[in-house]
Amino acid sequence: MAQTATAQVLDTEQAGFYRRLLRQICLIRRFEERAGESYALGKIGGFCHLYIGQEAVAVGALAALREDDCVMGSYRDHGHALARGMTSREVMAELYGKVTGCSRGKGGSMHLFSVDRQYLGGHGIVGAHIPLVTGAAFAIKYREEDRVALGFFGEAAVNNGAFHEALNMAAVWKLPAIFVAENNRYGMGTATERASAVYDVATRACSYDMDQEMIDGMDVLAVYEATARAVERAREQKLPTLLEARTYRFMGHSMSDPIHGHYRNREEIDEQKKRDPLHAFRDRLVADGIMTAEEYEQMEGEIAEELDDAIAFADESADPDPYELYTDVYVD
Amino acid sequence: MPTITYRDALNQALKEEMERDPSVFLMGEEVGVYQGAYKVSRGLLDIFGEKRVVDTPITELGFAGVGVGAAMTGLRPVIEFMTWNFALLAADQIVNSAAKTLYMSGGQIRIPIVFRGPGGAALQLAAQHSQAFDSWYAHIPGLKVVAPSTPYDAKGLLKSAIRDDNPVVFLEGEMMYNHKGEIPEGEYTIPLGEADVKLAGSDVTLVCHAKTVAIAQKAAHQLAEEYGISAEIVDLRTIRPLDVDTIVKSVVKTNRCVVVEEGWPFCGIGAQVVDYIQLHAFDHLDAPVLRVTQADVPIPYNKRLEKAAKPNPDKVIDAVKQITYLD
Amino acid sequence: MATKVYMEALSPTMEEGRIVKWLKRENESVTDGDVLAEVETDKAIMELQARGEGTLRKVLAVEGDTVEVGTMIGVIAANDEDIAKILATVGVTDTEQGQAGGASPDEVSQQLQTAEPEPTAAPTGPAASSLLPADRVKSSPLARRLAKERQVDLRVIQGTGPGGRITKRDVESAVPGPRHVTATVGPAYEDVPLSQIRKTIATRLSASIGPVPHFFLTAEIDMEQIAEAREALNSIPDAPRISYNDIIIKIVAQALRQHPECNAWWQDDHIRYFNDVHISVAVSVEEGLITPVIRNAQLKSLREIAGEGRELARRARERKLKPEEYTGGTFSISNLGMFDIAQFTAVINPPEAGILAVGSIADAPVVLNGEMTIRKQMRVTMSCDHRVIDGATGARFLQTLKRMLENPLAMVW
Q1: Which is deepest, A216, B127, C17, C110, by most CB within 10 Å?
Q2: What whole-number distance in Å separates Cα of residue A110 and Cα of residue B323?
Q3: Which of residues 83-102 of A touch B (CB under 8 A)?
């Protein structure tokens, strides 16, 4: 009797956890759709890279972290920021370039930052932030803390020298770093097999005698579990891990790239969409009885309201004052 | 006051700051076991251990980035480049990661880091190892750029650079490491952003920094002896932020100026100095401002050619004679 | 038949004249009786008329030049007439532009000494020389500034720099002058060269009355409102006590700002008009009198003036004033009211051009709105240096001062 009760409590906790994961995936999906609309309306400028299709990677990986762990990402960072717990208001306002944005309107889509959430950017040069992840892990070890540093980057970044240099040092110095390669199969418009002598990113870890795992990046629980193992390795043994999450980008590289362009065809995208991480996880939770279809619709409604609010907030917020042009160049 | 070398002055600054603040560490190629390619870090490994004196692989981009990442999360790294010639590989980290993060994050994330090492031409190291990148880094908002000329300045400025909450590019010189000078016993710092009048004079201002200060001093001596010209030497010490006031005050006094620098002429430090002078001291100029720089060529290996390429006292004297209308 | 144009004596006492403006340009046709130029004499601006017909072929003195009576300043002749011989008599060749040239180096140096400001003014118009490449004089920025300060025409200086560039050295050797302090932020004052009238006034009046030709202006001022205002100010707790003199200093400074012509120094060859007001306050000390200076009084609040005045007076009595604390005033105030002196005249403190002698404030019968009434009255007498300040000038200043004192709100107006 007591055992059953415990199992029920555990089940309830787990169900709640799964629902939270699904909510985050859904939030990112709908956020990105709204960002796309706002971009089309001219509310968002510059480069804007949507995360649609890859949501399970950020959500699964970051679910395995503690709040004080340190996270960095590339320029396709809206999903990372939201999965890290940054509000849709502060992220949307940043895309709108407003002073209420998480980077006070000075970073934009590619440079989301939140020290509170230990989300340390949003970096715009492919691969260049991977050494920063190693550096953050170095600082953690230096201070003898049990935190970890996790960095996301695309599979195309692994052909960059910075990737190699950063992973090598993380391994030589045994640093609590987790490197998550989001393999969406294209570096902008160049297919991985056209750019990379070795297709599997995870196998590169053997160059550094580093632990690695290749995971289905469309399966949020698989990403979560693999990351959790890497986190334990980092916290307990101070060892780095390279994770490769196989995923897919449903949208173009950026807003100026049509959905399939010349480098891939409609059929391929449609095929990949059968693995849609949002639909797959929703169907699973409904099938397992963790959530009803009505509850899901209710959740969608709540998210729509949250995003209405975020859009209105971003729209109504002020631009940075002109004097802000010259602030934050130097610490006084 | 004790007399020590420029190298040992830097060593003292590192040692004192590492003792003062446990978040300061030194990282770079050969800084530990080898005791430093130019022995600036001599003895530090023994005192502070491998944790705080970190030998790196030969990977400038990588360890510069590691330093920036560590600075983002609250440490105060001192990143040593064996020479600034190699740091071109790390330029992306210095320019894109270190200099811009404070701004891009809306003021949330500070990068308190020092990138330091020798730059410019030494002796017959040929083109790839003989480059002064002062103006490259000075071009970047978000970076501070420091280039001391004496042991006293080197120590005081390095200590301030380490304590500064901004990324600082600290330019030394192979040919200066053995320069000797007096420094006081005990603690002192020199604020960044303040030029130093190394010699007061009335007829012409020689603006210089780092290695060219010694050149200007030799020239000034000869000008006084042979031509009765009294030169004032303004040592910039910090290139960014530039101490425009001191430069302008001096030019207002002397009405003439020669800017001496180690780098190439095009878009050099001197070009910027001249701009400030024409802007702020136009009505005080009695002659055009001249510049003495290194020749606008890759530095050759051949000894005579290399010598011809570098700035020297004779070139400074020629320039001064031109603008004091003595020719 | 060519006609030489001379600087003519346009008043009985005129010895030299300043060309204010050429009304005819070179190569313009001229008929007898046309006005060629406006000339400032020692009395007024007069017209110089043509005494011949033809074309104004040559102009030999530029606008701004001061030229002795009898000097040839132009030539009128027919278009085809050869005037080279005439020009040769004053050392000018026909191809030269109309310069302020003379026959000998002596004449050139004389030109230098008598040159008026606006050295760039050319006969063809004030800005022409700096715009026309042909007229351009190569000179360093510093040389140009020095030349302007020393009122010397760069075109008569021989440049020794590269390509004939005029440098600081050239200007200095042409016009040795006091070494100027170069590092000024904004102009602290403006030097205005003496006009012919000023020179004559200075000479005549000095000769008549002594080195400083004084005259005196007295005004009676109703101090009723000032007394009330002072009482109100002094009822503020913990505030320094404000004296009548503090208020007078403040208001004199304000009034001088409106009348800069009274805030000036006589400088023998020019008058220096100050932009700031530095009030010398006469303080009697054991061995005599000293005048500590309240600087920039126009910018200071009453409280500041009161505090500073008291401190300066204390240090004056202790003989601890530094020289810079009792020199450099631009206008003086001497107050003997505390000795019940109703009215007096004060002697000007040179090089200042004015001093205000302040008498006592006393109840006096006055007629107000047709009725006799008792009000607080004060008499002030201003001594003026006639070389700088004329009667009406001083009177206008006193009128402003009186208006302000009788309506203290004007201070904040």
Answers
A1: C17
A2: 52
A3: 101-102
Q: Inspect the interface and report whether the beta carbons of A136 and B109 lie closer than 8 Å.
A: no
**Over the stretch C317-330, which tens digit does the pLDDT of each residue have?**
887 788 788 888 99
Token reading at C114 = 């008598």
Residue written as token pair 């040092």: A169
Question: Strand, helix or coil at B322?
Answer: helix
Stronger pLDDT, C172 or A219, i.e. the higher one? A219
Which A positions 106-145 lie with beta carbon below 8 A of chain B? 106-107, 111, 113-115, 120-125, 128-140, 142-143
CA distance A54 to A150: 17
pTM, full prediction: 0.67
Contact A329 B67 (CB under 8 A): no
Give the residue among A199, A276, A282 at the shortest CA–CA distance from A244. A199
User: Are the Cβ atoms of C140 and B325 closer than 8 angstroms?
Assistant: no
Using alpha carbons, select from B294, B239, B242, B240 the residue that is nearest to residue B265.
Answer: B294
Closest approach of B73 to chain A, Cα-based (Å): 6
Asked if the Cβ–Cβ distance from C142 to B285 is below 8 Å, we say yes
**C-alpha–C-alpha distance, residues A280 and A22, integer Å:** 10
Residues of chain C in contact with residue B284, where contact means CB-CB under 8 angstroms, are: 141-142, 145, 182
Cβ-based neighbour number of residue C342 at 10 Å? 14
Of A331 and C92, the one with more pLDDT: A331
Task: Specify the pLDDT at position C41.
Answer: 77
User: Is B284 close to C169, i.e. CB distance below 8 A?
Assistant: no
User: What would the pLDDT profile of A175-232 be if each residue is shown by its tens digit?
Assistant: 999 999 999 999 999 999 999 999 999 999 999 999 999 999 999 999 999 999 999 9
Residues C55, C78: contact at Cβ < 8 Å?
yes
Distance separating alpha carbons of residues C188 and C191, to the nearest angstrom: 10
Write the DSSP assignment of B253-274 as a string of letters.
Answer: HHS-EEEE-SS-STT-HHHHHH
Which stretches within chain B are classed as H helix? 6-20, 44-52, 60-72, 91-92, 101-104, 134-138, 151-163, 211-222, 244-254, 269-280, 303-309, 313-323
* Distances A98 to A8, A39, A103, A242, B139 between C-alpha atoms, Å: 46, 14, 9, 36, 28
> Which chain B residue has the Cα nearest residue C181?
B253
CA distance to partner chain C, nearest, from residue B288 (Å): 8
* Residues ≥6 apart with Cβ < 8 Å to B90: B60, B61, B63, B64, B65, B81, B115
Distance from C-alpha of C242 to C-alpha of B4, rounded to nearest angstrom: 62
Radius of gyration for the alpha carbons in chain C, expressed in angstroms and rounded: 27
For the purposes of burial, counting CB atoms within 10 Å of the CB of C84, is it exposed (0-12), middle (13-18) or buried (19 or more)?
Answer: exposed
Q: Is B104 helix (H, G, I), strand (E, B) or coil?
A: helix
Residue C59: strand pairing partners: C74
| Chains C and B touching, counted as 3 or more CB pairs less than 8 Å apart | yes
Residues 198-257 of B with CB under 8 A from A: none
What residues of chain A lie within 8 A of the CB of B96, using their CB? 124-125, 128
Q: Which of A125, A135, A161 sits opposite B68 (nearest CB)?
A: A135
3-class DSSP state of A280: helix
- Reading the block at residue C359, the tokens are 């008498």
Does A317 lie at the interface with B, CB-CB under 8 angstroms?
no
CB contact under 8 A, C167 and B284: no
State how far residue A312 is from chain B, nearest Cα, in angstroms.
22
Residues 6+ apart with CB under 8 A from A298: none
The pLDDT tens digits for C347-373 are 888 889 999 999 999 998 888 888 888
- Nearest Cα neighbor of C14 from C50, C44, C53, C54 is C44
Q: Strand C35-40: give its sheet, edge to edge.
A: C45-49, C35-40, C16-22, C66-68
Please name the residues between 182 and 201 in chain A that touch chain B, using a CB distance below 8 Å. none
